[in-house]
Amino acid sequence: MAKPEKLMNFGAVLKKYRKNAGCTQQKLAEILGISKNTVTLWERNLARPDVETIRELNQMFGIPLNELFEIPSAPKYSFAERKLIDYFRQLDESDQAVVVRMVSEMAAARDDERYKAYQDEYSLIQFSATRPAAGSGNEFVDDKPTYRFVRNNDRSMNADILIQISGRSMEPRYYDGDIVYAKYTNFAEDGQDVICSTADGAVIKHKSGNKLVSLNSDLPYGEKSEDDHVQIEAVVLGIVPSWDLAKPEEIDMLEEAHRKEVRAFKDKYGLEY
Predict the structure, then answer these.
(1) pLDDT for res 248
(2) pLDDT reading at 273 higher than 80
């Protein structure tokens, strides 16, 4: 028995016909007056255009509606699908347009719900280019900061920045590569973990009385003097668990859902779009 035909999704169909026409994503975006990122979302099947834009795409690339809406070829139609197509063909052109509009609006409403969920569930937080050492200190990096999308919770809502740890001297609380939530401040309570700048670079340490100490007894932190220019920069609010960070496949949708914040961040730090 032959295997059932695997249908291409909306985005794959659009990408196929666009490329067959020799049209780039950037060129299509310019023609439609939208951002290239929006075209990317369509082709990754994370969003769909409205009915008017679908009509433009259909006319521009000659995309059959049955391909756009993932309707299988005639021999593979189910009984319900055949009845639906029969009804559709009995309609005049204006009524068919109403049906297409209704289906498109339903899909758009679903996408709007997803956008709203991403807006409500995640926030954009700066991600430091410098990795504070759980050791003697890491050199400050002049690279421009980036950002990450994290789920909203008490820690993320109070954090100013995400920082990745380097080294082992703060084990077992923090391990090499852990990402932590941090809040900017020059003051810390006794018993808090802090990010500090020193003459040796950036470090993460535990504040015990007037001293900064390591938690790993095998890797102690030596006494510091005024010449070491130790300055508290932030307090650590906790580790960022993997489930707080957006998954790679969610980034495009989050970029679109938080486009104002993304634009403001990139403008602030001179990052490319």
Answers:
(1) 87
(2) no
